[in-house]
Amino acid sequence: MPRLTVPEYLPTKMGAAIDIFGSKARSGILFFLIENEPAYAADIASALGASKISTWKHLNAMEEEGVIVSDTPQGQRRGRPPRYSRNPAKILDLLSAVADLARQDRPDER
């Protein structure tokens, strides 16, 4: 399988925005949470028709990026499943990075 090439000059926030908004699964999770937060991972997986393992992987990545939050910190769960909600401030921050890219002029247009 070919390796994905990521340009060195890609800003960190832009990379994070691509990881979150460029994934149908992660976008689906965010849309599900609009109407159903807080929600358990099992409910999210069921609603999206995804496996629980796949859903957990996406939720962990999204939580690490800060676009979702849980009611129980990762190190304190001890068998208790967390409920997830969106973090609107972080979502807007990443969308702002995308908007900044759209507003930038090409070097020959400056």
Structure at a glance:
It holds the Pfam family HTH_24. The chain is mainly alpha-helical and 110 residues long.
Description of the molecule:
With 110 residues, the protein is mostly helical. The protein has one domain (13-74, 81-99): Arc Repressor Mutant, subunit A, CATH 1.10.10.10. The chain is 55% helix and 8% strand. The protein is built from five helices and three strands. The protein has helices at residues 12-21, 24-36, 41-48, 52-65, 88-103, and strands at 39-40, 68-70, 83-86. The chain has a three-stranded antiparallel β-sheet with strand order 1-3-2. α1 packs across α5 (88-103) and α3 (41-48) crosses α4. The longest helix is centred in the last third of the chain and has 16 residues, at 88-103. The chain is globular. It starts with 11 loop residues before the first helix and ends in a 7-residue tail after the last helix. The relative contact order is 0.16. The mean pLDDT is 85.
Provide key terms for this protein.
110 residues; mainly alpha; Arc Repressor Mutant, subunit A; three-stranded antiparallel β-sheet; 3 strands; 8% strand
